[in-house]
Amino acid sequence: MKIAFIGLGNMGGGMAANLVRAGHEVNAFDLSEEALARAKENGCAPYGAVAEAVQGVDAVVTMLPNGGIVKSVYTSDVIGKAPGGALFLDCSTIDLETAREVAGLAEDAGYEMVDAPVSGGIAAANGGTLTFMVGGTDAAFAKAEKVLDPMAKKVVHAGAIGAGQVAKMCNNMLLAIHMIGTCEALKLAEKAGLDPQMFYEISSNATGYNWSLNDYTPAPGIGATSPADNDYQGGFAAALMLKDLKLAMAGAETSGASVPMGKHAKEIYEAFVEAGGGGKDFGAIFTTL
Ligand code: NAD
């Protein structure tokens, strides 16, 4: 297939390289010359503009920072410029409203589009082991799966357009909540006189078990190996978790859902990022307790 890939940053760089490895012809564009040069080294064909990169392609994949940029790229340079019949896949994590709006504009112009945000960080993007949560029609999903497969461990059809973004925001809101709860429980155990390692042994096998405790223990030297054991370097940055929580709060607002714990989690991450912790792994909330 001939695929245009727009946005070759931390995530998109590795994803585009995996499409090349799978034998696809990949036209690349990024505002950053450095990112574009890296894509060229990985076998992509670099282009000077989005509208040029999408000429003659079967699919357009975008991996961009936010909804505003996604909307401007599609409305200015993709819709009406890519050939009729091309499939659009936005893999960025963006707000639900924009995801639905851009897909609607694409559909009005006769294109099929899916939202396909990912779970998994930079290592999974490089390794081709991302999980894609896809929103779109059955027909669009069937085509999208073929494009996403070389970048994926798993590709899930979540539902209609926007369902991928809903899955992503709900998952990450839940992740933030159980991470903070896990930090609090580990700290309470320690303060109240129980060895936190003993607490881990018990709770990871009891009803308190969850991914943050069992697989990503946020206390240094306790339980599973995680960024906590490396001064919270690497892993999933608190600033990115805050971005996802803001998207979840926007989604809750537009859909009228009540999310008191999600709101509080957002406030906790906001304070942590404002205090300078944005670059640390999101488990570093443990250090604030
Ligand atoms: P990044 O900032 O490293 O990459 C974004 C790239 O987009 C940059 O190279 C930038 O130059 C480019 N860009 C910005 N505006 C552009 C435009 N108008 N045209 C073309 N290129 C443009 O970000 P990232 O970490 O790769 O994240 C990308 C998306 O993936 C985000 O939506 C993020 O929330 C999501 N995501 C990231 C992670 C992660 O661990 N980094 C995990 C899951 C999902």
UniProtKB/TrEMBL annotation:
<dbReference type="GO" id="GO:0006574">
    <property type="term" value="P:L-valine catabolic process"/>
</dbReference>
<keyword id="KW-0560">Oxidoreductase</keyword>
<dbReference type="InterPro" id="IPR006115">
    <property type="entry name" value="6PGDH_NADP-bd"/>
</dbReference>
<dbReference type="InterPro" id="IPR029154">
    <property type="entry name" value="HIBADH-like_NADP-bd"/>
</dbReference>
<keyword id="KW-0520">NAD</keyword>
<dbReference type="InterPro" id="IPR013328">
    <property type="entry name" value="6PGD_dom2"/>
</dbReference>
<keyword id="KW-0101">Branched-chain amino acid catabolism</keyword>
<comment type="similarity">
    <text>Belongs to the HIBADH-related family.</text>
</comment>
<dbReference type="InterPro" id="IPR011548">
    <property type="entry name" value="HIBADH"/>
</dbReference>
<dbReference type="InterPro" id="IPR008927">
    <property type="entry name" value="6-PGluconate_DH-like_C_sf"/>
</dbReference>
<dbReference type="GO" id="GO:0050661">
    <property type="term" value="F:NADP binding"/>
</dbReference>
<dbReference type="InterPro" id="IPR036291">
    <property type="entry name" value="NAD(P)-bd_dom_sf"/>
</dbReference>
<dbReference type="Pfam" id="PF14833">
    <property type="entry name" value="NAD_binding_11"/>
</dbReference>
<feature type="domain" description="6-phosphogluconate dehydrogenase NADP-binding">
    <location>
        <begin position="2"/>
        <end position="159"/>
    </location>
</feature>
<feature type="domain" description="3-hydroxyisobutyrate dehydrogenase-like NAD-binding">
    <location>
        <begin position="162"/>
        <end position="286"/>
    </location>
</feature>
<dbReference type="InterPro" id="IPR015815">
    <property type="entry name" value="HIBADH-related"/>
</dbReference>
<protein>
    <recommendedName>
        <fullName>3-hydroxyisobutyrate dehydrogenase</fullName>
        <ecNumber>1.1.1.31</ecNumber>
    </recommendedName>
</protein>
<dbReference type="Pfam" id="PF03446">
    <property type="entry name" value="NAD_binding_2"/>
</dbReference>
<dbReference type="GO" id="GO:0008442">
    <property type="term" value="F:3-hydroxyisobutyrate dehydrogenase activity"/>
</dbReference>
<feature type="active site">
    <location>
        <position position="168"/>
    </location>
</feature>
<comment type="pathway">
    <text>Amino-acid degradation; L-valine degradation.</text>
</comment>
<dbReference type="GO" id="GO:0051287">
    <property type="term" value="F:NAD binding"/>
</dbReference>
<dbReference type="InterPro" id="IPR002204">
    <property type="entry name" value="3-OH-isobutyrate_DH-rel_CS"/>
</dbReference>
